[in-house]
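Figure S7 source data.
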Amino acid sequence: MVWHKSKRILLGVSGGIAAYKSPQLARRLIERGCEVRVAMTRAACEFITPLTMQAVSGHPVHLHFLDAEAESGMGHIELARWAEQVIVAPASADFLARLAHGRAGDLLAAVALATEAEVAVAPAMNRLMWEHAATRENLKTLAARGVRVIGPGAGDQACGETGPGRMSEPEEIAVEIAGDARPLLLDGVDTLITAGPTWEALDPVRGISNRSSGKMGFAMAQAALDFGARVTLVSGPVNLPAPRGARRVDVVSAHEMSEAVMARAPKSQLFIAVAAVADYRPVNVAANKIKKDGGRMRVELEKTPDILAQVAALKSPPFTVGFAAETENALANARKKCMEKGADVIAVNDVAGGAVFGAEENAVTLVYRKNGKTGEEALTKADKYLLAVRILERIAPLRAAS
Ligand SMILES: Cc1cc2nc3c(=O)[nH]c(=O)nc-3n(C[C@H](O)[C@H](O)[C@H](O)COP(=O)(O)O)c2cc1C
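Tokens for the predicted flavin mononucleotide complex:
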């Protein structure tokens, strides 16, 4: 399937409990190939933080007029021109009233008035607010002016009542705004992903490991599933639930991970090695807990299998992508790794200071190998899921063409 041109969507968030669903809506739109920018009202910021919306959208959030930083280099009129679609979700009763009456006292309402793009609203409020004659009148006015009203649904409300006024689910809104078809960039592609750290035992209770949380690998698995891939996730010891739909294989050591991968890699079409595999393991593993005697202890280490190189060296290897964490000379090392190991792409992240481990956000540079040379592209810092989507957007066409 051909990747469609992304639609530029301004997601407006106004003040209501349903704002907790707005980050999910941003994700559902991004999965469909949309570029999402976010504007929030002052009240919305009482319910969710701009930081969350910034992380999921990958861009600073627009909050106030005349605040150069918050307007993020794009003033409200430019934002209104930039948008190909405006969706306000949740739309509060007050926001609907402001829009119906042409009030432009806050940035979001001003953009909604100043845009030529279609404006859609997903109202969310207490059922009595929804049923109030004033709200009904405002909605009638808005609908007559071409504003698309999505939902609301009926059911249990946050205020403890039951009835109409519940914001439609993010998936339903995303379907309305960006269509049903997900861009299935990896439709049916057998994808093998490794994630997490490995644990190399010294004795029954101690071992050598690293600080990988598994979040980046699990985000890659989720994004690959969302793009239609059949995903097998080989995971070291982590504290994360497997994404629904992925086949999960739990392993502990680098050897176990190598075995699990090599048993599956020949049948895979795409291999993404995100796991932070230990490079060395103790030569001898004590059967019992090592006792404390003597001032010093010497541990002899031996190399573990290089899983990425093993897969790349297969007779007909899957398209192979490796993640590399570097603390110095990140790019030079990634270029070298890419050539030496025979990987098609290396995604390198600079982990100096350890800030990436366990964090929700990450940034990588993709180093490609093509015709004996390397090329590269830096992807800016974003929520790990969003970054995974961006990485797959680049990898999928390369794999298809390989
Ligand atoms: C806890 C709480 C929950 C609220 N939930 C809603 C809601 O679901 N829908 C709504 O229209 N207003 C709700 N309000 C009231 C709005 O936040 C208030 O009208 C606010 O001025 C809306 O501002 P905005 O439209 O600029 O975002 C709630 C207020 C509070 C304190």
